């Protein structure tokens, strides 16, 4: 297995705290700090500019808290909270964070959390496969990532549309998203996840995916266009 390098962003409105966390990260040898932000607004900009694996995220900050940012950002990177407040711990773990560090943070405790992140990403690196299984009608159906057109969240189910069938499964959209390779799929709307490879056209607030039309949320449109089109737009 190749060594794992984790691209991380530190977000903290206290400069001394951010500096200390950066020093800890550098000492691990596998955390690469690609940016340091003072608040979630700066973090939002950074995440749109470059790939990030891990957020070292404070909670109480100006404009928007770390928890509110995490709740509202689509498909965020993994998170380790770094905060002076114990009272947010339950909310943090409900958001599936890797760890919750209370300030003042010792290097020993930081390293334990960093190693947890390392183990998580190492497992992701070794377990990548071109397919996964979905439970539907008392059987497990094998689904290849490349065959998925899009996934739609229904009231109590998720519908997975592939090139040759529709599969209904009792699950949440979030649980399906966690199984999908992030570089291949995008979430244009809170109820849909789309395979970028199968997008045939973009028309207004609609993605044309095979014979289907998938809506783009007005809040997601800029990010969706940036990820889909990127530098592939032919100009005059």
UniProtKB/TrEMBL annotation:
Please state every residue range assigned to the domain named HTH LytTR-type: 132-199
Give all residue intervals belonging to the Response regulatory domain: 7-118
Q: Which residues carry this modification: 4-aspartylphosphate?
A: 58
Q: A GO molecular-function term, please?
A: phosphorelay response regulator activity
Listed A to Z, the keywords are: Phosphoprotein
> Quick check: keyword GTP-binding in the entry?
no
Question: Is Nucleus a UniProt keyword of this protein?
Answer: no
Matching entries from PANTHER family are given as: STAGE 0 SPORULATION PROTEIN A HOMOLOG (PTHR37299:SF1), TRANSCRIPTIONAL REGULATOR-RELATED (PTHR37299)
**Protein name, please?**
Response regulator transcription factor
Protein's organism: Chitinophaga fulva
